[in-house]
Design a protein that fits this description.
Blueprint (H helix, E strand, L loop, with lengths): L2 H12 L4 H20 L2 H4 L2 H5 L4 E10 L5 E12 L5 E7 L5 H17 L6 E6 L8 H15 L8 E4 L6 H15 L22 H15 L9 E4 L4 H12 L3 E2 L1 E4 L2 E4 L6 H10 L5 H6 L4 E4 L17 E3 L9 H9 L4 E3 L8 H10 L2 E3 L1 H4 L2 H14 L6 H25 L6 H19 L4
Parallel strand pairs: 3-4, 3-5, 6-7, 6-11, 11-12, 12-13
Antiparallel strand pairs: 1-2, 2-4, 8-9, 9-10
Helix pairs in contact: 1-2, 2-5, 2-17, 5-17, 6-7, 8-9, 8-15, 8-16, 12-13, 15-16, 16-17
Length: 450
C-alpha cells in the first residue's frame, strides 16, 4: 500500500466510530499521494500521521439552568487540530448532532482551508450538542456563559480564536464574548463574527456567501464562461445561502431555490433575499413562512422527499451551490444535476457532497469547487477581523470586500495552478488539497518534532 493508504487504514482501525472524520480523511489523503511521491521528505517526517491527529482535544460538561429552573447538561468540545502556520482558528457549532468525530472532520478540513486563504491561521473546531432552536434568549445566554466558563482558559487572541458555525450566530457570539470578557477582564479579539459595536468587521456576515460566488466567478472565467444569465439552485437558508443568493444577483445570475431542515422553496422568478432575511433572521421562522409571503414560491416539505434524495437538486439549473450541511448531496443527486445540464457546482457548506457525488462531478469534467476552497471566504474575513482587532481599527465594507475578493481569486488561482502542476487541469479537489497541505507540511518540518 502507498503511504497515504497506510495512514488511512490506521485511522479506520483507530476511529471506526467517527465516519465523518474518516470520510474527510479519505477524501484528503487519496488526493495527496502525488505530492507525497514527488517529495519523500513528507513520509520521512511522518507528516500525515501528525496532520491527521489533533494537537489536543478538550471535552467538557456544560451545566446550565433553563427557564423552568431545571438543570440541563450538555457536552462541549474544542479540537485544536494544527497550529503550524498560526493560532488555531475555526468555528463553534451548537447542534444536537455534534460529537467528537464531526468536529474532527471539520477541524481537519479547516487546516487546509485556512492554509489556502494565504493568511496565518491554523485549524480548529468546537461546539456542543446544545440546540438553540426553541430556546429563549435567556436560556441561550445562560448556556453560552456556562460553555465559556469551560472554554475560556484554552483560548486567546494569539492562541485560539473561535468563530460561529451552525447554531452560533451573532446572538450566541455576543453572549460568548461577554462571558469571556467578564471571566478574563480582557477586551481582545478572542472571537470573530462579533457585532459591529464591539469589534466586529463589516462584511463578515456576508463573507462566506460572497466569497463562494467570487470563487465561482474566477473558476468560470478560467473556463471562458461567467455567472451572467445562469439559473442557480442554492440549499440552506442561513447566512451562507442568503448572501450567496444576494451576490449571485449582483453577478447577473438568478437563484431559484433555498432550503432548511423542514423543506425547500422553489421560485422560478428568483429567491427574494429581503423576504428570506425577514423569515430566517428576523422571524426565525421555517421556510413555509416564505411561501406564505411570496405567491410564486412553492414549498415542498421534507415529508414529501423521496427516500435518500434531496429534490432541491432535481430542479433544472446551470449551477448548484450546496450551502446547508455535510453529505446533503449524494451520488444520485449528482447524477440528477448532471442529467439536467448543470455545468457548475460550488460548495458553500463543509463537505456537503459525498465521495460518490464528488467522483461524478470530476468524471463529468464540470466546474467543481470543493468546500475547503470555495467556502473559505468566511474564515478569511474572520482573519481580517483579527487584523482589525489587533490594530484597534475598523475598515470600510468596501475595503474588507475588496480584500475578500482578492483572497478568493488568488485562492482559486493557487488551487488551479497546483492541479496543472500535477497534470490534472481542472481537478480542484487535488489542487486545493495539495496547495493547502504543502504550506502546512513545510511549516511542520521547519519547526521540528515537538
Amino acid at each position: 500500500m502507498s503511504y497515504s493508504e497506510n495512514v488511512l487504514s490506521a485511522l479506520k482501525a483507530r476511529y471506526p466510530y467517527q465516519p465523518e472524520f474518516l470520510q474527510a480523511a479519505e477524501e484528503i489523503l487519496k488526493t495527496l499521494q502525488p505530492a507525497l511521491d514527488k517529495n519523500p521528505v513528507y513520509e520521512k517526517n511522518k507528516i500525515l500521521e501528525r496532520l491527521t491527529e489533533p494537537e489536543r482535544t478538550f471535552s467538557f460538561r456544560v451545566e446550565w439552568v433553563d427557564d423552568k429552573g431545571q438543570i440541563q447538561v450538555n457536552h462541549g468540545y474544542r479540537v485544536q487540530f494544527n497550529s503550524a502556520i498560526g493560532p488555531y482558528k475555526g468555528g463553534l457549532r451548537f447542534h444536537p448532532s455534534v460529537n467528537e468525530g464531526i468536529l474532527k472532520f471539520l477541524g481537519l478540513e479547516q487546516i487546509l482551508k485556512n492554509s489556502l486563504t494565504g493568511t496565518p491561521i491554523g485549524g480548529a473546531k468546537g461546539g456542543a450538542d446544545f440546540d438553540p432552536k426553541g430556546k429563549s434568549d435567556n436560556e441561550v445566554m445562560r448556556f453560552c456563559q456556562a460553555f465559556m466558563i469551560q472554554l475560556y482558559r484554552y483560548i486567546g487572541a494569539t492562541v485560539d480564536v473561535p468563530a460561529g458555525d451552525i447554531g452560533v450566530g451573532g446572538r450566541e457570539i455576543g453572549y460568548l464574548y461577554g462571558a469571556y470578557k467578564r471571566l478574563t477582564t480582557r477586551y481582545e479579539g478572542i472571537l470573530t463574527g462579533k457585532g459591529l459595536t464591539y469589534g466586529g468587521s463589516l462584511a463578515r456576515t456576508e463573507a462566506t456567501g460572497y466569497g463562494l460566488v467570487y470563487f465561482t466567478d474566477a473558476m468560470l472565467k478560467d473556463r471562458g464562461d461567467s455567472l451572467k444569465g445562469k439559473i442557480c439552485s442554492v440549499s440552506g437558508a442561513g447566512n451562507v445561502a442568503t448572501y450567496c443568493c444576494e451576490k449571485l444577483y449582483q453577478m447577473g445570475a438568478t437563484p431559484v431555490t433555498v432550503s432548511d431542515s423542514r423543506g425547500f422553496i422553489y421560485d422560478p422568478n428568483g429567491i427574494k433575499v429581503d423576504v428570506l432575511e425577514q423569515v430566517k433572521q428576523q422571524e426565525r421562522a421555517p421556510l413555509s413562512r416564505y411561501a406564505e409571503l411570496v405567491p410564486t414560491a412553492k414549498f415542498t416539505p421534507v415529508s414529501a422527499y423521496p427516500a435518500g434524495r434531496h429534490p432541491v437538486w432535481d430542479v433544472k439549473v446551470d449551477a448548484a451551490f450546496p450551502c446547508a450541511t455535510q453529505n446533503e448531496l449524494n451520488e444520485e443527486d449528482a447524477k440528477a444535476l448532471l442529467k439536467n445540464g448543470c455545468k457548475c457546482v460550488a460548495e458553500g457548506a463543509n463537505m456537503p457532497s459525498t465521495i460518490g457525488a464528488i467522483n461524478e462531478f470530476l468524471k463529468a469534467g464540470i466546474a467543481y469547487g470543493p468546500a475547503k476552497a470555495a467556502n473559505a471566504g468566511g474564515v478569511a474575513t474572520s482573519q481580517l477581523e483579527m487584523e482589525q482587532n489587533a490594530g484597534m481599527t475598523a475598515w470600510t465594507f468596501e475595503e474588507v470586500d475588496g480584500k475578500l475578493h482578492n483572497i478568493m481569486t488568488n485562492l482559486y488561482n493557487n488551487a488551479a495552478a497546483t492541479a496543472r502542476e500535477f497534470k490534472l487541469d481542472g481537478n480542484l479537489v487535488l489542487g486545493a488539497n495539495i496547495a493547502g497541505f504543502r504550506k502546512v507540511a513545510e511549516a511542520m518540518i521547519a519547526q521540528g518534532v515537538i
